[in-house]
Specification:
This protein is mainly alpha-helical. It has helices at residues 2-18, 27-43, 63-74, 84-87, 94-105, 122-130, 142-152, 154-157, 175-187, 206-218. Among the domains are: 27-105, Cytochrome Bc1 Complex, Chain D, domain 2 (Orthogonal Bundle); 142-218, Cytochrome Bc1 Complex, Chain D, domain 2 (Orthogonal Bundle). The longest helix has 17 residues, at 2-18.
Amino acid sequence: MRSLLAQTLFLLLIGLGMSGLSAAPPAEDSKGKDINGVCAACHGEFGQGGKRGEYPRVAGQRAAYLKDQLKSFRARKRINIPMYPYTQERELPDEDIEAVSDYLAAIELPTKWPEFKDSDDALTRLEAMEKVMIVPRAEGDIENGKAIYQKGCASCHARDGRGRGKFPMLIGQYTLYLKKQTDSYLKGERPHDEEGVTGILNTLKEKDIQDILAYLTSIQNSEKQ
């Protein structure tokens, strides 16, 4: 009888382990998290970036885009002095780029303030609030921004602003950072993924660009499509 009970408990424990209740996190996730420890100095522990947009949000960004940009930094196709020492092959080989990109892409940052229980302590509340990503509304004509974005930008960045393939997610990104990158494209300091000398950005007025930025901040809470 005792032997039968022991066998039953043993099988139950195996079943719980197979269900994932006691499973360890995938090794690749752990590796990506470890590598992100270096990135966190600028981009934040949760990939949330700088609060004023001096460093971009990378959490939830498309993995294909992150991998492409890290390799561009490493090859100096995209010039960024602070990124250079961290992306040289001796510092960040391909397998590390894969791991950290996949790790960051899987992070989900809430866009609403958390609801707490009376039993939640101060540390729990602080950590939960640090993960919230709410970009302040940018000024501009949202309807005009929507019309221009859906006509000229959605084919690459998707109608909901979450990006496609190697084209980045734009919603939930700091407006200041997006404006800075737009200016770099227009000045030719950063190559845009378009053929020819000019692209869609070169056809837009300053007000149109601001309206697009305003529109993007208005849809950051939209559900994934």
